[in-house]
Design a protein that fits this description.
With 277 residues, this protein is of the alpha/beta class. The protein is built from eight helices and 13 strands. Strands 8-9-6-12-13 form a five-stranded mixed beta sheet. A two-stranded antiparallel ribbon has the order 1-7. A two-stranded parallel ribbon has the order 2-3. Helix 2 packs antiparallel against helix 6, helix 4 crosses helix 6 and helix 4 packs across helix 8. The longest helix is centred in the N-terminal third of the chain and has 26 residues. It is globular and about 60 Å long. The chain starts with a helix and ends in a 7-residue tail after the last strand. The relative contact order is 0.19.
Amino acid sequence: MTDSAQAELEKSQEVENQRLEAQKHAQKMRVPVDNSKSKCVDGGYQEDQEVGAMAIPGGDLGVSMALLRVGYSPAEAFSLVKNFVVDRGGKYSWHSDTHAEPSGHDEHEDHDHEHHHDKPVVGCGHCNAAISQAEQYGVKSEDVSTLLSTIRNEQDNMNLVVLDREHEEKAILVVTSSDFTVKPWDQEDNNQYFIYDANRHQQFLKEFVAELAKNGKNQVNGQEVTFDSLWAASQEQTNATLGLLKSSKGKPMFTVDVSSEIPEVKLAGFAPVIEAH
Protein backbone atom coordinates (compact mmCIF):
# COMPACT_ATOMS: atom_id res chain seq x y z
CA MET A 1 0.00 0.00 0.00
CA THR A 2 1.34 3.42 -0.95
CA ASP A 3 1.83 6.14 1.64
CA SER A 4 -1.02 8.18 0.16
CA ALA A 5 -3.36 5.18 0.19
CA GLN A 6 -2.41 4.42 3.78
CA ALA A 7 -3.06 8.04 4.78
CA GLU A 8 -6.43 7.96 3.03
CA LEU A 9 -7.37 4.74 4.82
CA GLU A 10 -6.37 6.16 8.19
CA LYS A 11 -8.39 9.29 7.48
CA SER A 12 -11.46 7.25 6.56
CA GLN A 13 -11.11 5.24 9.75
CA GLU A 14 -10.77 8.43 11.77
CA VAL A 15 -13.87 9.91 10.17
CA GLU A 16 -15.83 6.72 10.84
CA ASN A 17 -14.81 6.90 14.49
CA GLN A 18 -15.95 10.51 14.56
CA ARG A 19 -19.27 9.50 12.99
CA LEU A 20 -19.81 6.83 15.65
CA GLU A 21 -18.96 9.34 18.39
CA ALA A 22 -21.43 11.79 16.89
CA GLN A 23 -24.10 9.10 16.76
CA LYS A 24 -23.53 8.28 20.42
CA HIS A 25 -23.76 11.96 21.32
CA ALA A 26 -26.94 12.45 19.29
CA GLN A 27 -28.63 9.48 20.92
CA LYS A 28 -27.72 10.62 24.44
CA MET A 29 -28.55 14.30 23.93
CA ARG A 30 -31.73 13.91 21.82
CA VAL A 31 -34.57 16.22 22.96
CA PRO A 32 -37.96 17.36 21.62
CA VAL A 33 -37.90 20.67 19.75
CA ASP A 34 -39.10 23.95 21.18
CA ASN A 35 -40.13 26.17 18.28
CA SER A 36 -40.87 29.16 20.51
CA LYS A 37 -37.24 30.26 20.53
CA SER A 38 -33.96 30.15 18.64
CA LYS A 39 -30.28 29.98 19.54
CA CYS A 40 -26.95 29.92 17.74
CA VAL A 41 -25.20 26.83 16.38
CA ASP A 42 -22.47 27.37 19.00
CA GLY A 43 -21.56 24.25 20.97
CA GLY A 44 -21.27 26.15 24.24
CA TYR A 45 -24.87 26.09 25.44
CA GLN A 46 -24.95 24.18 28.68
CA GLU A 47 -27.33 21.26 29.06
CA ASP A 48 -30.08 23.34 30.69
CA GLN A 49 -29.73 26.37 28.39
CA GLU A 50 -32.21 26.95 25.52
CA VAL A 51 -33.14 23.27 25.37
CA GLY A 52 -34.81 22.32 22.08
CA ALA A 53 -34.52 25.84 20.63
CA MET A 54 -33.99 26.12 16.88
CA ALA A 55 -30.21 26.19 16.38
CA ILE A 56 -29.24 28.44 13.47
CA PRO A 57 -26.15 30.59 12.81
CA GLY A 58 -26.35 33.61 15.10
CA GLY A 59 -29.89 32.86 16.28
CA ASP A 60 -32.33 35.65 15.38
CA LEU A 61 -29.33 37.94 14.89
CA GLY A 62 -28.26 35.65 12.05
CA VAL A 63 -31.63 36.09 10.33
CA SER A 64 -31.19 39.86 10.59
CA MET A 65 -27.71 39.52 9.05
CA ALA A 66 -29.22 37.67 6.08
CA LEU A 67 -31.69 40.55 5.65
CA LEU A 68 -28.74 42.94 5.43
CA ARG A 69 -27.39 40.76 2.62
CA VAL A 70 -30.56 41.15 0.54
CA GLY A 71 -30.67 44.92 1.00
CA TYR A 72 -32.57 45.88 4.14
CA SER A 73 -31.21 48.58 6.45
CA PRO A 74 -29.91 47.60 9.91
CA ALA A 75 -33.03 49.08 11.53
CA GLU A 76 -35.32 47.12 9.21
CA ALA A 77 -33.27 43.95 9.53
CA PHE A 78 -33.72 44.06 13.28
CA SER A 79 -37.33 45.19 13.56
CA LEU A 80 -38.73 42.84 10.92
CA VAL A 81 -37.26 39.77 12.61
CA LYS A 82 -38.08 40.94 16.11
CA ASN A 83 -41.70 41.72 15.27
CA PHE A 84 -42.14 38.34 13.60
CA VAL A 85 -40.65 36.47 16.56
CA VAL A 86 -42.60 38.44 19.17
CA ASP A 87 -45.88 38.01 17.26
CA ARG A 88 -45.28 34.26 17.51
CA GLY A 89 -44.94 34.52 21.28
CA GLY A 90 -41.15 34.49 21.47
CA LYS A 91 -38.26 36.84 22.18
CA TYR A 92 -35.49 38.04 19.88
CA SER A 93 -32.62 35.70 20.73
CA TRP A 94 -28.88 36.22 20.35
CA HIS A 95 -25.76 35.43 22.33
CA SER A 96 -22.34 36.58 23.39
CA ASP A 97 -19.74 34.99 25.66
CA THR A 98 -17.63 35.74 28.69
CA HIS A 99 -14.61 36.57 26.51
CA ALA A 100 -16.43 39.55 24.99
CA GLU A 101 -18.67 40.71 27.82
CA PRO A 102 -17.03 42.44 30.80
CA SER A 103 -17.97 41.22 34.26
CA GLY A 104 -21.27 42.70 35.33
CA HIS A 105 -22.02 43.90 31.79
CA ASP A 106 -25.43 45.43 31.30
CA GLU A 107 -26.81 43.57 28.31
CA HIS A 108 -28.54 46.74 27.10
CA GLU A 109 -25.47 48.98 27.29
CA ASP A 110 -23.96 49.98 23.96
CA HIS A 111 -20.27 49.38 24.61
CA ASP A 112 -19.12 48.98 21.02
CA HIS A 113 -17.28 52.31 21.09
CA GLU A 114 -15.46 51.31 24.28
CA HIS A 115 -14.40 47.97 22.90
CA HIS A 116 -10.83 46.86 23.54
CA HIS A 117 -8.85 45.82 20.46
CA ASP A 118 -7.75 42.52 22.01
CA LYS A 119 -11.30 41.25 22.53
CA PRO A 120 -13.98 40.23 20.04
CA VAL A 121 -16.70 42.81 19.52
CA VAL A 122 -19.27 40.20 20.50
CA GLY A 123 -18.99 36.59 21.59
CA CYS A 124 -20.93 35.30 18.58
CA GLY A 125 -18.48 34.19 15.91
CA HIS A 126 -21.09 34.52 13.15
CA CYS A 127 -21.61 38.22 13.89
CA ASN A 128 -18.03 38.99 14.87
CA ALA A 129 -16.63 37.53 11.63
CA ALA A 130 -19.16 39.50 9.58
CA ILE A 131 -17.80 42.69 11.08
CA SER A 132 -14.14 41.85 10.47
CA GLN A 133 -14.60 39.96 7.15
CA ALA A 134 -17.66 41.71 5.76
CA GLU A 135 -16.87 40.99 2.10
CA GLN A 136 -17.26 37.26 2.77
CA TYR A 137 -20.81 37.93 3.98
CA GLY A 138 -21.92 40.30 1.24
CA VAL A 139 -22.53 43.11 3.73
CA LYS A 140 -20.91 46.32 4.97
CA SER A 141 -19.01 46.07 8.23
CA GLU A 142 -20.58 49.28 9.51
CA ASP A 143 -24.07 47.90 8.83
CA VAL A 144 -23.38 44.83 10.96
CA SER A 145 -21.94 47.06 13.70
CA THR A 146 -25.02 49.26 13.56
CA LEU A 147 -27.26 46.19 13.73
CA LEU A 148 -25.37 44.95 16.79
CA SER A 149 -25.62 48.35 18.49
CA THR A 150 -29.35 48.43 17.79
CA ILE A 151 -29.74 45.00 19.36
CA ARG A 152 -27.67 45.91 22.41
CA ASN A 153 -29.77 49.04 23.02
CA GLU A 154 -33.13 47.28 22.77
CA GLN A 155 -34.70 46.27 26.09
CA ASP A 156 -38.11 44.78 25.33
CA ASN A 157 -38.65 41.13 24.37
CA MET A 158 -34.96 40.30 24.08
CA ASN A 159 -33.15 37.11 25.07
CA LEU A 160 -29.37 37.41 25.47
CA VAL A 161 -27.42 34.33 26.57
CA VAL A 162 -23.79 34.89 27.61
CA LEU A 163 -22.01 31.59 27.07
CA ASP A 164 -19.30 30.47 29.48
CA ARG A 165 -17.21 28.04 27.46
CA GLU A 166 -14.13 27.43 25.39
CA HIS A 167 -14.66 26.22 21.81
CA GLU A 168 -14.04 22.47 21.83
CA GLU A 169 -16.54 21.35 19.19
CA LYS A 170 -15.63 18.05 17.56
CA ALA A 171 -17.77 18.35 14.41
CA ILE A 172 -20.81 20.02 12.87
CA LEU A 173 -24.09 18.12 13.24
CA VAL A 174 -26.70 19.15 10.66
CA VAL A 175 -29.98 18.00 12.19
CA THR A 176 -32.55 17.11 9.53
CA SER A 177 -35.45 16.07 11.77
CA SER A 178 -38.18 18.53 12.69
CA ASP A 179 -39.64 17.07 15.92
CA PHE A 180 -36.41 16.28 17.77
CA THR A 181 -33.02 17.93 17.93
CA VAL A 182 -29.73 17.48 19.78
CA LYS A 183 -28.25 19.37 22.72
CA PRO A 184 -24.73 20.54 21.82
CA TRP A 185 -22.75 20.02 25.02
CA ASP A 186 -22.59 16.79 26.97
CA GLN A 187 -20.99 18.18 30.10
CA GLU A 188 -20.70 14.76 31.75
CA ASP A 189 -18.37 13.50 29.01
CA ASN A 190 -17.27 17.02 27.95
CA ASN A 191 -18.27 16.54 24.31
CA GLN A 192 -19.22 19.61 22.29
CA TYR A 193 -20.71 19.80 18.81
CA PHE A 194 -21.96 22.56 16.57
CA ILE A 195 -25.68 21.94 16.05
CA TYR A 196 -27.57 23.27 13.03
CA ASP A 197 -31.32 22.63 12.68
CA ALA A 198 -31.32 22.92 8.90
CA ASN A 199 -34.90 21.88 8.14
CA ARG A 200 -36.34 24.00 10.92
CA HIS A 201 -34.32 26.96 9.63
CA GLN A 202 -35.83 26.56 6.17
CA GLN A 203 -39.34 26.34 7.58
CA PHE A 204 -38.80 29.42 9.73
CA LEU A 205 -37.59 31.45 6.73
CA LYS A 206 -40.52 30.29 4.59
CA GLU A 207 -42.98 31.45 7.22
CA PHE A 208 -41.05 34.68 7.74
CA VAL A 209 -41.01 35.55 4.03
CA ALA A 210 -44.74 34.76 3.80
CA GLU A 211 -45.34 37.23 6.63
CA LEU A 212 -43.21 39.87 4.87
CA ALA A 213 -45.31 39.44 1.74
CA LYS A 214 -48.55 39.60 3.72
CA ASN A 215 -47.48 42.91 5.26
CA GLY A 216 -46.06 44.35 2.03
CA LYS A 217 -42.52 44.31 3.41
CA ASN A 218 -41.00 41.93 0.85
CA GLN A 219 -39.71 44.59 -1.54
CA VAL A 220 -36.27 46.14 -1.08
CA ASN A 221 -34.41 48.28 -3.59
CA GLY A 222 -36.99 47.39 -6.22
CA GLN A 223 -36.44 43.65 -5.78
CA GLU A 224 -38.77 41.04 -4.33
CA VAL A 225 -37.39 39.14 -1.36
CA THR A 226 -38.29 35.47 -1.73
CA PHE A 227 -37.52 32.40 0.32
CA ASP A 228 -34.94 31.40 -2.29
CA SER A 229 -33.09 34.72 -2.11
CA LEU A 230 -33.11 34.82 1.69
CA TRP A 231 -32.08 31.17 1.97
CA ALA A 232 -29.21 31.76 -0.47
CA ALA A 233 -28.04 34.76 1.58
CA SER A 234 -28.22 32.74 4.78
CA GLN A 235 -26.29 29.81 3.30
CA GLU A 236 -23.61 32.14 1.91
CA GLN A 237 -23.09 33.63 5.37
CA THR A 238 -23.22 30.24 7.08
CA ASN A 239 -20.50 28.88 4.82
CA ALA A 240 -18.40 31.97 5.45
CA THR A 241 -18.57 31.41 9.19
CA LEU A 242 -17.82 27.70 8.89
CA GLY A 243 -14.79 28.46 6.77
CA LEU A 244 -13.43 31.37 8.80
CA LEU A 245 -13.73 30.23 12.41
CA LYS A 246 -10.81 28.22 13.80
CA SER A 247 -13.27 26.14 15.81
CA SER A 248 -15.14 24.92 12.72
CA LYS A 249 -13.02 25.21 9.55
CA GLY A 250 -12.18 21.88 7.94
CA LYS A 251 -14.10 19.82 10.50
CA PRO A 252 -16.39 16.96 9.48
CA MET A 253 -20.06 17.68 8.90
CA PHE A 254 -22.62 14.96 9.60
CA THR A 255 -26.31 14.92 8.79
CA VAL A 256 -28.25 13.69 11.81
CA ASP A 257 -31.79 12.36 11.79
CA VAL A 258 -33.07 11.93 15.36
CA SER A 259 -36.68 11.23 14.42
CA SER A 260 -36.31 7.87 16.14
CA GLU A 261 -34.41 6.96 19.30
CA ILE A 262 -31.59 5.46 17.23
CA PRO A 263 -30.11 8.37 15.25
CA GLU A 264 -29.13 8.05 11.62
CA VAL A 265 -25.80 9.81 11.15
CA LYS A 266 -24.07 10.22 7.77
CA LEU A 267 -20.97 12.06 6.62
CA ALA A 268 -22.01 15.10 4.57
CA GLY A 269 -18.55 16.46 3.90
CA PHE A 270 -16.18 18.87 5.58
CA ALA A 271 -16.48 22.54 6.49
CA PRO A 272 -14.71 24.84 4.04
CA VAL A 273 -11.44 26.57 4.86
CA ILE A 274 -11.35 30.31 4.15
CA GLU A 275 -8.35 32.50 4.84
CA ALA A 276 -9.16 35.78 6.56
CA HIS A 277 -7.98 38.99 4.89
